[in-house]
Amino acid sequence: MATEGFVISLICVRSKSFMKWHGLGKRKFAVENLKFDMKNAPFNIHRTKRGGEVTYHGIAQLVMYTIINLGTHKMDLHWYLRSLKEVVIHVLSSTFSIQASTVEGLTGVWQCITGNEKLAVVGIRVSSWITYHGLALNVTTDLSPIKWIIPCGIRDHQVGSIKELVREGVGHGRADLHHLNDASLIHITHKSLLEEFSQVFQLEYNYKSISSTMMYERK
């Protein structure tokens, strides 16, 4: 499998809210990033094996889960991480006229027009040069639960969403965006993610929509 060339990119919309605690057992100090008692958690908590700290995943967050054989692309994890971030930056710029960038020493993608708000988290795991996990982009996500954690262990920074910035007029390049409902914002973001991913990684893609019912039936 490691010698075959393939790319699988699954984009889904979160329909439930939960928190992820990354690297549990290896980072005992991670509990300092929680503002609640684990015995009385306000959300379901899932423990994962990828890097990072505690992260909130909420409804209407777009998640791109990428499985790529880097052995047939480029065997460079730094390049891969930069490329994933570049996908998000291009989506925000080309579709919403939102200026975004990376911040030295910090993870994720940040908008930098009105302040450093984190719009996307990026986290990967690699085995035999096969990648999994990927990125999560806040589109119309309710971010109020963020108050319960210090997201990704980064203090004194905010978390934002595309919807908030569009409503505030940050994405003023297209006047029609101000009147779009949540479903429309998610749809155009989803489409843009596919297009920008194919451009950044220089790939052609075949799109297929799979409902949650179909996914469960295949298990």
Explain how this protein is built.
With 219 residues, the chain is an alpha+beta fold. It has a single domain (7-205), classed as Bira Bifunctional Protein, Domain 2 (BirA Bifunctional Protein, domain 2). Helices cover 24% and strands 25% of the residues. The protein contains four helices and ten strands. It has helices at residues 77-96, 162-167, 182-200, 212-218, and strands at residues 7-13, 18-22, 45-48, 54-57, 61-68, 100-101, 109-111, 117-127, 130-138, 158-159. The strands form two sheets. Strands 1, 5, 6, 7, 8, 9 and 10 form a seven-stranded mixed sheet that branches. β8 (117-127) and β9 (130-138) form a beta hairpin. α1 crosses α3 (182-200). The protein is globular, with a radius of gyration of 17 Å. Residues 3-205 form the BPL/LPL catalytic domain.
List the helices and strands and how they pair.
Blueprint: E1 7-13, E2 18-22, E3 45-48, E4 54-57, E5 61-68, H1 77-96, E6 100-101, E7 109-111, E8 117-127, E9 130-138, E10 158-159, H2 162-167, H3 182-200, H4 212-218
Parallel strand pairs: 2-3, 8-10
Antiparallel strand pairs: 1-5, 2-4, 5-9, 6-7, 7-8, 8-9
Enzyme class: transferase
Domain BPL/LPL catalytic: 3-205
EC number: 2.3.1.181
